[in-house]
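ok trying again, last paste got cut off:
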Amino acid sequence: MENLDTDKVILGGTPVDLMDPEPALELILARAGQRGLPPLGVASVNLDHLHHFGAGGRWEGTLHADPSSTVDWLYLLDGAPLVSQSQRLTGHRWPRLAGSDLASPLLDRAEQLGLRVGFLGGSSENQQLLAQKIAEEHPGLQVAGMWSPDREELASACDSERIAAAIAAAGTQILYVGLGKPRQELWIDHYAALTGAAVLLAFGAAVDFLAGRVHRAPQWASDHGLEWGYRLALEPKRLASRYLIDGPPAYIKLRTASCTVPHARPESVPSAAPAPRTPGRFTGPDGAADAAVVVVTFNSAKGVGPLLASLREETADLTLRVLVADNSSSDGTLALVRGAHPDVIAFATGGNLGYSGGINAAMRRAGDSATVVVLNPDVTVERGSLKTMMHRLRSSRAGAVVPRLLDDNGATSPSLYREPSLANATGDALFGRRFPDRPGWLAGTDYNPESYAHPHTVHWATGAALMVRRSLADSLAWDESYFLYSEEVDFFRGLRTMGETIWYEPAAAMTHAGAGSGTSPRLNALLAVNRVRYIRKYHSSAYAKVFHGAVVLSELLRCWKPDRRGVLRSVLDEGSWTDLPGATREPDPAQFPGGSVIIPAHNEASVIARTLAPLAPLAAAGKIEVVVVCNGCSDNTAAIARGFEGVTVLEIGRPSKSAALNAGDAAATKWPRLYLDADVQISQHAVRDVLTALEAGGPLAARPAVHFDLQDAHPLIHSYYRTRLRLPSTRNRLWAGGVYGLSEQGRKRFQEFPDLTADDLFVDRLFEPSEKAVLDVDPVVIRPPRTPRDQVAVLHRVYRGNAEQNGDAGQHSTARQTLAEVLRSVRGPLSAAHAAVYLGFAVAGRQGASGPGSGTWERDDSSRGPAGVHPGTPGR
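nice, full thing came through this time. structure:
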C-alpha cells in the first residue's frame, strides 16, 4: 500500500489523514486522472467509523493491515468530537472534511476536468432524482452510470464481481459509493481494483444529499457540533442506534485510544523456502512441511474419510503432515485410518483425553512445520482454503486464522463469538437466538451477516477449524482441564494476551457437519459448567458468582426442553461437576491381568469393529486372548475381525450361539474368560476389572454394570427401561448384560454350553448369590431396540429362552416375582405410567414367545446401525 504524503494521527484506533479542503480535493482529482496506480479509497472518519473500524470494533484493522492490498486509503477527518481530539493531539485545529461537504465540489471539478463519474448505492428513486439534478446543475458532467444493488447482491461475491465489471465497462474514473458504513468501505477494499475506477469515495448518504432528499443541517448546528442532533430529529428510526447506543462507546474509544504517532509495524520476515510439494500424498514425520494438520477423533469412522480426502486435494498447493490422534474410539476409527490412509500419522492417545489432550498429544509428533491446522473430523475442506488461510496468516501478521464454516445445506454457520462477559451471558440467557440484531454487548454470538462476508479480527471462533503460527502453537498448550467445550475460548484468549490477532477469512470455506461429540443432557451440562469454570479462571470470585447466576438463569428458562433435562440441577450442584464427562486413560498393558474374551458373532459386520476396537490392542500386546467365532455368517464379519491385529477368528457353518461359545472355549487357552455379545461395547477398564475380580479368591462368575444407550430410541422404549433399571433382579443377575465372566473353577460347573436360547440365564442359575457378582466398574454399553416393534420381537426371544430352561430344569416362571418388583418400583404417577408400559411390553413379549415362527431367532437390526454418540472429544 502506498504511503500518502499527509500528516497522520490515530483517533480511536484508526488512522486519520489531517488535511485542509483544497489539498484534499487536489489529491483526489490528481489520482482520478492518473493511470497505473492502485485505486484510492476515500473514507470519512467519524464516531460511526470508530464504532466499526476503531479499537475493539468488529472490523478493527481490516482496511490497513494487509500490505498486499490493492487499495490506498485516504481517511478524512469528520465530526466535531474528532476535530477537537485532533486539536488536542497536534495543537492545530484541522477542518472537518465530511463526505457530504466534498461531494458537490468534487462534481464541479470533475465536470471541468471531463472525468467520468459513477454512483453506486442509494435507492433507484433517489438515483432518478440525482440524474435530474445533475442534468440541471452539471450538464457537462460525464455520468458513467448508476447502480442500485440490494443487500443480497452486495453480500454475494459473484454478484459484486458482476457489478464491478459493469462499472469497469462503463469507464468509470470516480465512483461515489453510498452503501453505508461499514459496507461501503468493505466493498471498496474487496472490489475496487475490479471496478477500474481510480478513486472510490465512501461517502455514505452522498447520493441522498446530492439528490436533495436529505438536507444538510443549518450552519449554526454544524458550527456547534450539533449536526448529529439535527439528523437524528429527521431520521430517528434509522439513526437512533448509531447516535445513542453506538456513539457513547465510540467516543470513549476516541478519548482513550488516540495518539499522534502511528503504530510502527514490524518488518515482514521472509518465509522459509517452501517444502517440496507431494500432490496427492501427505508427508511423513521427517522433513519440513507447510502445515501440520491435527485431527482429534472419537468414534469418527463415518466422517474422517471425507475430511482426509479433502485434505489430499490441498496437497497440490501445500505440503501437509496429517496427524490423527484417536481418543479410544470404539467404532474402528483408528484401524480405518491406518488401513485406508497409510501416509497419515495415526496413533492412539492412550485413553479419551478430551479435545485439548488430543491436540497436545498430536503436537508432540508434529515435526517441522510452519503452521498448525486443527480440524474436527466432521469437517471437509473446500479446495484452496488452506492456502487462502495461510496467505491471510502471513499478509495480516495474524496469530491465527479461522475459516467460514458451512452447514450441510451450504449456508454459513454462526461460528464467531465475543469474549464471554456478564452482559452477553445475561443477554443470551434472556433472549437466546432471538433478536439477533441486538447490541453486540448483549450477545455472545455474532449473528450479523456482514461479519461473515468480510475478513476481520475476532475475539474467538469455534475450535472446529483454525490455523495458527507454529511458534505460537508450541508456546501455548491447550488447557486439558476443560475436556470438551470452552477450551478454544481459553486458547484464543491466550493468543490475544500474547498480543496476537485472530482473523476470520471468509474466502476459506469448510463444511462442518456439527455435533461430532453428540448432544445430550450430560454434554449440555458440561457446556454450561465449563462456561463458569472459564470465567472463574480469569475473573474475581464476585464476578464469577454473578456470571454463574446468569448461567443458572439461562438453564432455568430452558429446563423444559428434552435435551436440557438435569442441566439446571448439575449447574446448581457443584458437587456433581466431577461426575460430568472427563478425561480417562487406558490401563497400563504391563499391569493387565491375563484372560480370554470369546465373542460369538452371527452377521455382525455393522458392529463388530466397535466391539473389537478396545480389545485388539491388548490382544496384539499378548495380554489377553480375543477369539471371534463367526457362526453361519453370510456377511463380512470374519474379514472385518481379521483386520484387527492379535484377534483369532474362527468360522463354523452352524448359526448357533451355543456352538460358537463351545468352539471359542475349545480354542481359548487363558483364564479367566469373558463371554461377550458382538454388539456390546466394553472398555479396557471393564475388561481389566472383571478379569482381576475373577482371579483366585474372588467370585466364580461376574459381569460389569450396564449402561443402556437410549439416544434416538422411541419414548416408549425410554419408559420401559426406566422401570427395568429399578428392578433388583436386573441389577444383581448375570443375565441382561450381554457379557459375563467365569473363573476356571466356575467354568467347571458345566461340561459345555447347552443348545439353549438364553446362555446367560443358564449360567446365572448355576451359582448361588454369594458366588457371583455384578461389579461397580466402567459399564458396558448396550444399544437396546429403537422401536417398540423391535423391542417386542426381542422379548419374544427372551421369554422363549426363559421358558426353555424353566421347562427343562423344572423351575417355576419368574413372572410373579417380576410383577412384584414392578409394583414395588412405583413411587408416584410418573413411575406408575412407566411401570404400565413395562408390563405392556412384558405381556406382548410373552404372547409371541410360542406359536408360529417361535423357532426363529428374533434379531434387532434397529440398534445395529452406526454406534450411538457418547461423550467424546471432537465436535464444536
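cool. Residues 303 and 472 are 29 Å apart (CA to CA). Residues 788-809 form the longest helix (22 residues).
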